Amino acid sequence: MPADDTQTFDSTVYYDDDADPSHIADKTVAVLGYGSQGHAHAQNLSESGVNVVVGLRESSSSRTAAESDGLRVETPADAAAEADVVSVLVPDTVQPDVYENAVEPNLEAGDTLQFAHGFNIHYNQIQPPEDVDVTMVAPKSPGHLVRRNYENDEGTPGLLAVYQDATGDAHDEGLAYAAAIGCTRAGVVETSFREETETDLFGEQAVLCGGVTSLVKQGYETLVDAGYSPEMAYFECLNELKLIVDLMYEDGLGGMWDSVSDTAEYGGLTQGDVVVDEHARENMEEVLEKVQNGQFAREWIAENQAGRPSYTQLRTAEKNHEIEAVGEELRGLFAWQDESEEDDEETAEVTA
What's the predicted TM-score (pTM) here? Predict the structure, then answer.
């Protein structure tokens, strides 16, 4: 780690100088999947001098993209059979099937099974043999940013975890992999499969995806029900949220408070806990408990096995909320929408 006596962390953080590329330089890495994370890992690894083979179904629409990017493509089974490190970057919901049919029959003692999220290992949907290493290298960013940062000689913060160390080399190899995709340029935090999985699920449900969207909708509905125009409600409860989040992202909560008006700061400090009060904290603790005891995982697994009926119904209801129609109309009126559409097109190209 770089010398910095003024900075302390509860977790260990690794940088470029901590990684030894030799731990992966002479190995073949199979990247299974070529979506958001898969395309970034595969291209970054290849450009770092690692021998990469991409594993995709013969009918996959991503085969052409991977080959156009100069990568060799095989079936998942053939890629896994050839590889020393199998990086499983297909969606969580299909990983158990891919593992059972393509990976497990082709694992050899001393190989590495690697993930970017701990869900299936932590909840025992994938149970590897004892003679292979099991690691996780998880960039904390969408894949297109992992790729863009690498191309710009910048880094993306990431996580490193070792679930099973059969060879004694799992940690060093994982760190070398993290360096090869650019994460050690920014910093790699050491964690565990359990911690990454449970904090990730909780954050998504209670704050980032579930909590925020519910707060936005209820704020919007409160204003509209009180007689204010839907357009004003949209701007105040959704559109300006990005401005506040950007400030927090750049300089923390303190930086955000310093940037808004004194009126906004006083109102926020006095009324925020009125809205998100101890009842919300108690509800968050219930959400966390369901993550910790596996209830959410069991529900989600059962939902997929049943064909996703509740998921489909909830998605439809969300898309049909009035705020979506109002937002689509408003966004079409402003010049910044053109730039947003260009970004969406770029993202779609690398996640297809």
Answer: 0.88
Q: Give binding residues as ranges.
A: 34-37, 57, 60, 62, 143, 200, 204, 236, 240, 261
Reduced to 3 states, what is the DSSP secondary structure of residue 13? strand
The one-digit pLDDT tens for each residue of the chain (352 residues) are 333 444 455 789 999 999 999 999 999 999 999 999 999 999 999 999 999 999 999 999 999 999 999 999 999 999 999 999 999 999 999 999 999 999 999 999 999 999 999 999 999 999 999 999 999 999 999 999 999 999 999 999 999 999 999 999 999 999 999 999 999 999 999 999 999 999 999 999 999 999 999 999 999 999 999 999 999 999 999 999 999 999 999 999 999 999 999 999 999 999 999 999 999 999 999 999 999 999 999 999 999 999 999 999 999 999 999 999 999 999 888 865 555 555 544 444 333 3
In angstroms, rounded to a whole number, what is the distance separating the alpha carbons of residues 143 and 349? 12
C-alpha 153/C-alpha 151 separation (Å) is 5
From residue 49, give the alpha-carbon distance in Å to each of 69, 181, 191. 15, 11, 27
Distances (CA, A) of 117 to 2, 70, 89, 90, 159: 27, 26, 9, 10, 10
**Max CA pair span of the chain:** 67
Long-range CB contacts (within 8 A, 24+) of 291-299: 291/198, 291/201, 291/202, 291/205, 292/198, 294/123, 296/201, 296/205, 297/119, 297/123
d(CA 325, CA 177) in angstroms, rounded, equals 44
Residues marked active site are found at 117
> Annotated binding residues for Mg(2+), as ranges?
200, 204, 236, 240
CA dihedral 139, 125, 210, 266 (to 10 degrees): -50
Rounded to 5°, angle at Cα 317 from 315 and 322: 125
